[in-house]
Amino acid sequence: MKTSLLNKAQSCLLPLLLLFPLLCAAEQFVQLTAEIEINDWDYWFFTDKIHQYPGEDHPGSIFTQSQTRHCVVGDNTWMIESTFPTSKVTWWFTGTNLVEHNLITKETPEAVVKRLSQISRMAMSSPHVGQEDTHVYESSDGNPGRPVRVADLMGFDLPGNICWLAFCSGSFLKHEGRKINSPSAFWKESSIVSSGWSDQTDVFKDSLGLPNSINLITTNNQSIFQYQVRQSTNLLGWNFPLEFYGVQYLPTGANGWKLHLTIKGKVTAISVGSKPQIPAEVLKAAEKSQASLHW
Question: H helices of 151-237, where?
Fold first, then answer.
């Protein structure tokens, strides 16, 4: 009887032992939701000094709502999803490409369209609900802010850029010769583009390697951008920030600097996730945008 039970236990254990290496090697993913608060002090000082407020008839409140982003993070792949009042924008990094998908979910209010037309001095109309656009960009490191000009930022918005730095930049930071850029793209039109900068970066000591702190410094020891994690948690052996903050500066005049913006971020939900899948119709559109796409 004992021998029979032992043989049965061994027969059940053998498949598990054979499967164990595969389970250990399986890709793991973490999904999270983050709220990002951005205060553009440079913009507020500028508009209040000239008493003009583009797109508005009167000063807008400096107390704004946080912006929410949903992320799925893997070792060398990620997804960042942004939901706006009239659209949803999803970004995927496949390890070799950045894929951007825009979906119009609601018509833009007529008053907003009219206001935008007045600002741009061009006749504008609301995009149709259901309209989609897909673009593919070659990338070996997943850095969405590599291009030099503001116009080349590929549609990655500021809160999305901050989420990428906080949650998705681990594989990028491992690349030899990588160059960390500050989240806001306005530095691309400033003098620091030609003078350059270095970084002092501390990463979490795990296989994902997200940043714990960053300090971007010019050649004359001026901080351009500072980032710091205040609270973190560990999931699947990876460290993720739960609360973080940052400050970005811009050059003004010959030797002066001014506060550009401050950011605060917090994770409101985090759990084990699954590999983000690019929908078949998006892949099809992506293949039209670029001949080869690896996922």
Answer: 158-163, 170-173, 192-195
- Which of 35-49, 112-126, 259-273 bottoms out in mean pLDDT, i.e. has the lowest? 112-126
Rounded to whole angstroms, the Cα distance separating 224 from 123 reads 39
Provide the residue ranges of all domains of the chain, joining segments of one domain with +: 34-289
Size (the chain), residues: 295
The predicted structure's pLDDT at residue 61: 86
Residue tagged 């003078």 (tokens)? 195
**3-state secondary structure (DSSP) of residue 108:** coil
Question: Which of residues 219 and 156 earns the better pLDDT score?
Answer: 219
Residue tagged 């999270």 (tokens):
32
Give 79's strand partners. Answer: 72, 92
Instruction: Please report where in the chains the tokens 């894929």 appear, as a residue.
Output: 99
| Nearest one of 275, 294, 204 to 28, comparing CA atoms | 275
| Res. 18 pLDDT band, cuts 50 70 90 | very low
CA 227 from chain centre, in angstroms, equals 14
Q: What is the pLDDT of residue 109?
A: 74
Coil/strand/helix, residue 94: coil
**Helix H or strand E segment including 98:** strand 97-104
pLDDT tens profile 188-206:
777 777 778 999 999 999 9
CB burial class (10 A; 0-12, 13-18, 19+) of residue 293?
middle
In whole angstroms, what is the distance from residue 252 CA to residue 45 CA?
14
CB 72 within 8 A of CB 29: yes
